Amino acid sequence: MIDNLLDGFSIRRITEENNISVPTSFQLRHKVLFVLDNYIKNIQLGNSAQSDEKYFKINLKGIKQKNMPRYSKRRTFK
User: Fold this and answer.
1) What does the pLDDT look like over 15-56, one tens digit per residue?
2) Could you give the CA distance from residue 9 to residue 6 in angstroms, rounded to a whole number?
3) pTM for the predicted model, two decimal places
């Protein structure tokens, strides 16, 4: 059942794979999802966190040469 859920099968396909009825498949699916939800809510994370730099593209179109935050990069054509 769990393998079928991880593979993204529909309820009808889970029913065919496990030889159970559609309502039973639906109930088992929700029981598994309920257990996973409770497990995730009880996870304790550590006290430290790390972060990397985030670089944003800046648009320099229409900015005059004296107001630019950095030198413009010239395109090279081969």
Assistant:
1) 998 899 999 999 999 999 999 899 988 888 788 888 888 777
2) 8
3) 0.51
